[in-house]
Amino acid sequence: MPEDTRIFNFCSFADLGRRMPLRFFLFSLVWFVLTGYDGAGWIIGFPAVLLAACLSLLLSPSPGISISLVGACRFIPFFLRQSTLSGIDVMRRALSPRPVINPGLVSYSTFLPEGAARVFFVNTISLLPGTLSADLHDNRVTVHTIDRDQPIWANMQNLELHIAVLLRVSSVKEKK
Amino acid sequence: MSRIYIFFALILLAAIAAGMVRILRGPTAADRMMVAQLFGTCGVAILLLLAKGLDNMVLLDIALVFSLLAALATMTFVRRTWQGNDGEGADGYPS
Amino acid sequence: MDILHNAGMFFIILGLPFFLSGTVGLLRFPDIFTRLHALTKADNVGLGLIIFGLALQSDSWLMVARLFLIWLLVLIASSASCHLVARCAMQKKIQPWSRP
Q: What residues does each domain of chain A span?
């Protein structure tokens, strides 16, 4: 993938000098969105942003991910569509005269590497139609499904591939 | 015109009130705690609608704090209360 | 402006049934996992629609950004707490309800 599609790159070595300004910028953006054009607010805002940036570096020095812009362009519409469908799906099941559910547990092993990618995967599962991540042991995710007749396996793989593209995970290397 | 937002907020309040039945029924502590989660999301929506209806943007900040507090409450509950011994059997049902 | 206002109103009204069905699911579904399904998914879609509607009606970009920041935070918070509750239920060996 060409270099210019990267917007963030946390991948590099432990160079604080590079990560600190980026996080400072991101937290400043959040502060700006929350407080608006109020200049005096930065008297509190500046120390708060600085502390937040330091704290985030302390808690998670290197997330080890980089977000691909192309992946984000594909992932966001996919996610919005799927989560809307999941809401409609739940509404249909809840409002039908007899709740149409056929729940069960499915175990799925993911090729996504440990850390941010896997956490992101687990959290996204819960917002997709018919699936809910119930447990995570190493790379095995226990998924609770509301309907065992749905193609859970295919949905999981689809989501996994979208996340792999979004977070630039090379699927070939990790897959066994 | 702005009354309609307050009407929408009332509908959502009714949704929370109906959800409270789950607190009475249980059966596990987590079922009861889920109503707090419902309170979180519904509460945010109510506050956003009220912010629009009453034209008071301070409510938007309250909505933000509300959502974070609801998440914090659930996490604290799971870590501190439900995983510890609080008079429930191993199956999670009251013993 | 009027078209945007009406479109916003449409999305807000569209969001309300999702909240109601989330509550209905919370009351009607048989076990903790299925209730989590109802709560997490329906409420987030409802909130998303209401926020989208309000964003269409708002008059400044800053307000739109603020609304979407709130939505993003609620999304992260609810999916994380949903997973935590489900995992704790699994550790407590609560058997998921299954169709007889």
A: 3-59, 69-174
